[in-house]
Amino acid sequence: MNSIFTDEPITDPLPLYRLRDGLMAVDLLAAAISHLDFFTWLADHPSTLGAICVHFQIKPRPGDVLLTLCYALGLVTQAGGVFHVTARSREHLVATSPWSLKPYYDTLKTRPQTLEYVEVLRTGRAANWGSSHSAAWAQSMESDAFADEFTAAMDCRGVLLAPALAKKVDLSQHKALLDVAGGSGIYACAFAMRYAHLQTTVFEKPPVDRIARRAIQRRGLEKRVEVLAGDMFEGELPEGFDAVLLSNILHDWDEPVAEALLAKAARALPSGGLLLIHDAFLDAAKTGPLPVAMYSALLMHSTEGRCYSTTELRIWLERHGLDWAGQYPTAVDRSVILARKI
Over 90: is that where the pLDDT of 69 sits? Predict the structure, then answer.
């Protein structure tokens, strides 16, 4: 089983990842076109994000995701914080245009996911994964059945991403890595396999900690990869680690919570310690890339978060005593941002 940390697939799964991660972006666009008539209004009223949110009575988090998606699709542009329609959306998405596709998109307006996006836009509350779980996502993870299913999904994604991440980050001078909310432990296992001297620890809340122990044992790494039971939202993170990993964590939470988690990681590190933030990031100006903007639409629908830009991460890192140490691509539209504790 540990060959997954050394072998690579012969074929490229990128199109399959992008289909899954971008699955719901069309429903967000349909909600904007058919329920808000967004482009017809914006054509006559170039506006800031704040003004757009006020007019359409939508919340800032989903509004931000919508505008990033529209920018990445070439449907809006922005100057001085004011958003304008482009020639493409003026011709094809403004209701009064002879080439308007609004009636075409209107055929999707009663899709359950499109209607859910209208609700998310207006309330800011996540609709949850697959539209099938009534409980909030974090609460759902306290259920053995849901936690097992979701952790398995993240584990199979990690089979490709974890070795790619471990190859990009040099931990040869580090002694101990803490993987915060590390799921099945796939990332901790990948680093343990790459660096024989490195002690890795997964920090997870029940029942996922038990799932992690079983997965690590199946991989024969129980002597190298420890599991600590705990909640990243309760108190401080464990200390005694000179590297801390936040992999696919921040994107599940809105800005105040995401920054607070980053701040906890910074406080747990010693001076000179390394923070690894592994995720799908938007560019500095939030204009794309398109696959990440589409993935952000899915996250906005199903979690309390979204994808963050490199500018946002730089601000948070500086605010909490961390020096930017570079950004490096890993696999399937993900990358890792490295930062050193001052």
Answer: yes
Residue among 200, 316, 214 nearest 258 (CA): 316
Q: Angle at CA 249, nearest 5°, toward 268 and 284?
A: 100
Rounded CA-CA distance 177/181 in Å is 13
Closest CA to 292 of 309, 311, 317: 309
Instruction: Provide CATH code, domain 14-124.
Output: 1.10.10.10
Answering whether pTM is above 0.85, one says yes
Kindly report, as residue ranges, where domains of CATH 1.10.10.10 are found in the chain. Answer: 14-124
Rounded CA-CA distance 331/164 in Å is 6
CATH 3.40.50.150 domain range(s) in the chain: 138-341
pLDDT digits (tens, 9 = 90+) for 100-159: 999 999 999 999 999 999 999 999 999 975 444 444 545 655 666 666 676 777 788 899
CATH of 138-341, one of 3.40.190.10, 3.40.50.150, 3.50.50.60, 3.40.50.1370: 3.40.50.150
Catalogue the long-range contacts made by 314-318 (C-beta closer than 8 Å, 24 or more residues apart).
316/258, 316/259, 316/262, 316/263, 317/262, 317/275
pLDDT tens digits, residue range 74-111? Answer: 999 999 999 999 999 999 999 999 999 999 999 999 99
Confidence at residue 102, expressed as pLDDT on a 0 to 100 scale:
98
